C-alpha cells in the first residue's frame, strides 16, 4: 500500500530526557529500527519555537514515523529550551540560538552515551543555525540543512564548518522566504565540502507529500545510501494510520 502523510511504520519508540550543562531538562523521543540496530542516527534540530517550531514539526514527525523501518535509521527528536509539543515542555526559555548550544550538546551527549552510531545533524530553518553554530562536535559525521536562512549563522560559522571538514548538504526551496538557491550557492561557496540542492517548487515549510519525500530521500541518500531510494509503497501489514491526519 502507498505511504501517505499519516503513515506510521513500525519502530521501537521511547520517550527520552536530555539534561543540559546549565541544568535544564529537555523532553524528546528516540525512534529505533524494529528488531535490529540502526546503521546511522539523525539528531533533529527543529524550526523556530517562537513561530511554532518543535520536535513534532511535520518533516521530523514523518522522519520518525518512516525512516527507522525504511532506512534502518535512529531518529532522535527533542524540544529545545522553552519549547512545547505533545511530548511535553522542555524547561527554560528561548535563548535566541545562543543558550541552545547547551541543548545541542545535550543531544550529542545522549547519542554518545547510548552508543548511537554514525550521528548526523538534521537542522530545519532555526535548527540549521544551531547546526552551523554549535554542531561542530567530533561525534558528528555530517549535517543536512533544510531551508537554511543564514541569519544567526554568519560567514564566520560557515568558515568554521569548512575547517571542521565534515560533509554539509543544504536543501534550499525554490520559493524560500529567506534564502533561495542562487544566493545559497554563493553563501555556501566558502565551505568547499558543502553541496547546495535547489528544490523546484518547494517553499520554506516543505508542505506537501511530494516535498516530504524529496527531503527524506535526500537525507537517506547521504546517511544510508544503501536504503536509497525510499519506497513509495510497503506491505499492508506494515502500515498504521494516525487518526485525523491527512
From TrEMBL:
Has the keyword Lipid metabolism been applied to this entry?
A: no
Indicate the secretion signal residues: none
Q: Does the keyword Hydrolase apply?
A: yes
Kindly list the residue ranges recorded as spanning the membrane: none
Q: Which residues form a coiled coil?
A: none
Q: Which terms are listed as keywords in the entry? A: Hydrolase
Q: Which GO terms describe its molecular function?
A: hydrolase activity
InterPro entries linked: AB_hydrolase_fold (IPR029058)
This protein's name: Alpha/beta hydrolase
From which source organism is this entry? Streptosporangium jomthongense
The lineage, from the top, is: Bacteria, Bacillati, Actinomycetota, Actinomycetes, Streptosporangiales
Amino acid at each position: 500500500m502507498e505511504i501517505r502523510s499519516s503513515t506510521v511504520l513500525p519502530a521501537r519508540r521511547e520517550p527520552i530526557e536530555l539534561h543540559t550543562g546549565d541544568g535544564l531538562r529537555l523532553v524528546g523521543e528516540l525512534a529505533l529500527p524494529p528488531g535490529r540496530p540502526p546503521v546511522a542516527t539523525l539528531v533533529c534540530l527543529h524550526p523556530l519555537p517562537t513561530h511554532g517550531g518543535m520536535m513534532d514539526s511535520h518533516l521530523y514527525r514523518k522522519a520518525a514515523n518512516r525512516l527507522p523501518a525504511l532506512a534502518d535509521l535512529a531518529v532522535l527528536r527533542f524540544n529545545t529550551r522553552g519549547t512545547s509539543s505533545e511530548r511535553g515542555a522542555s524547561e527554560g526559555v528561548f535563548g535566541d540560538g545562543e543558550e541552545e548550544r547547551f541543548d545541542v550538546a545535550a543531544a550529542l551527549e545522549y547519542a554518545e552515551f547510548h552508543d548511537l552510531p554514525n550521528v548526523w545533524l538534521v537542522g530545519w530553518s532555526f535548527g540549521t543555525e544551531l547546526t552551523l553554530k554549535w554542531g561542530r562536535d567530533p561525534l558528528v559525521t555530517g549535517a543536512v540543512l533544510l531551508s537554511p536562512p543564514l541569519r544567526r549563522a554568519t560567514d564566520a560559522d560557515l568558515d568554521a564548518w569548512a575547517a571542521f571538514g565534515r560533509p554539509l548538504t543544504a536543501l534550499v526551496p525554490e520559493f524560500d522566504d529567506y534564502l533561495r538557491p542562487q544566493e545559497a550557492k554563493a553563501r555556501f561557496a566558502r565551505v568547499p565540502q558543502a553541496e547546495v540542492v535547489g528544490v523546484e517548487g518547494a517553499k520554506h515549510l516543505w508542505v506537501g507529500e511530494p516535498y516530504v519525500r524529496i527531503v527524506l530521500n535526500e537525507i537517506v541518500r547521504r546517511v544510508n545510501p544503501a536504503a536509497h531510494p525510499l519506497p513509495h509503497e510497503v506491505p499492508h501489514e506494515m502500515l498504521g494510520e494516525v487518526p485525523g491526519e491527512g
